[in-house]
Automatic annotation (TrEMBL):
Residues 195-310 form the DUF1722 domain. This is DUF523 and DUF1722 domain-containing protein. It comes from the Bacteria. Pfam families: 2-thiour_desulf (PF04463), DUF1722 (PF08349). It comes from Psychromonas aquatilis.
Length: 319
């Protein structure tokens, strides 16, 4: 990794039920094996259950999102026990207390914690749509638009999982740099670390961020705000195989004067094998990191693309 960070420094908000706490309406939990068995080795969780926090008992009657008079209410299926405002106010309160978080994992489809695709019902109990957002989760995300957020169900997808973890570490890096006091030099250095990462996600963003930093007429505070917003938006976009190949090819150029014909052929074959879907991304990256040890390049050593998070997470082995 390109910056030093301890497990204790990375705080992740998480729905309490996902780490085994029996706080759901039926006294059960909904453990996420990835969060419990893998990610927990690298981060510290701050668990929240908004329904319990606002005073609902365990067990408790189910609640759902109900659309009435163009407004979304969170209440029992018959409309009683409306807790919409309580959940919103608790969300606003926690959002202000958790600016230090570097990520958040929400419980999917929950009327309070769902990040997306929450079912909305009519007052008569008919299913209306599945495009709601949990009342608590909405407050957290709106107050912290840069915060990397995901749901437990989506984290079963290896591409989404890798993307989420990469965003956590990038955002934590930004938090550390910001806390130390931003300067133009620090901002430029930070960007240099993430140039190839952004290239692998979105070429348009790659160019725009470079142009932003080159604009000497924008005050530092405004430039930093625009920069981190642009970076985190770019990182939300899934890196494609095509963009990875383009990025790997750019990096390959740094070794053109050092490698033998046989070594160049081997690296080309690894990149092409990845392009064709015959090899995982880790294959060409491993070879590039090997050559980087043999032929050190300070600029490449600082690239988050080559080591965006702890290798032990093994997130680039599946694609």
């Amino acid at each position: 990794m390109i910056f030093s960070v301890n497990k204790e420094e990375i705080k992740i908000g998480i729905s309490s039920c996902l780490i085994g706490q029996k706080v759901r309406f039926d006294s059960s939990n909904k453990p996420s094996r990835f969060c419990i068995d893998e990610l927990s080795d690298h981060v510290e969780y701050e668990p929240y259950c908004p329904e319990v926090a606002i005073g609902l008992p365990i067990p408790r009657p189910t609640i759902r999102q109900i659309k009435k008079d163009d407004l979304i209410h969170v209440a029992r299926p018959d409309g009683s026990g409306d807790v919409t405002e309580e959940l919103k106010q608790y969300g606003k309160s926690i959002a202000e207390q958790t600016k230090h978080l570097s990520g958040y994992v929400f419980c999917a489809k929950s009327p309070s914690c769902g990040m997306e695709r929450v079912k909305i019902y009519t007052p008569e109990g008919n299913s209306l749509t599945s495009d709601g957002v949990g009342a608590y989760a909405k407050e957290i995300m709106e107050a912290n638009p840069l915060l990397p957020c995901e749901e437990n169900g989506r984290l079963n997808d290896m591409h989404i999982r890798e993307n989420f973890v990469a965003r956590i570490y990038a955002y934590k890096h930004w938090q550390k740099v910001s806390e130390s006091g931003l300067t133009i030099h620090k901002l430029t250095t930070f960007h240099s670390h993430y140039k190839y990462t952004v290239m692998s996600h979105n070429l348009v963003a790659y160019k725009k961020l470079g142009q932003l930093l080159a604009d000497v007429d924008i005050p530092l505070a405004e430039k930093a705000e625009q920069y981190i917003s642009g970076l985190m938006d770019a990182l939300k976009i899934q890196a494609t195989r095509k963009n990875h190949v383009n990025t790997l090819t750019h990096i390959q150029g740094y070794f053109s004067k050092h490698l033998t014909a046989e070594q160049r052929k081997e690296l080309c074959e690894q990149i092409d094998g990845y392009r064709l879907g015959l090899l995982p991304l880790i294959a060409p990256l491993t070879l590039i990191n090997h050559y980087l040890m043999q032929y050190p390049k300070e600029y490449l050593k600082g690239q988050s693309y080559l080591s965006p998070y702890p290798d032990s997470l093994r997130l680039r082995y599946a694609y």
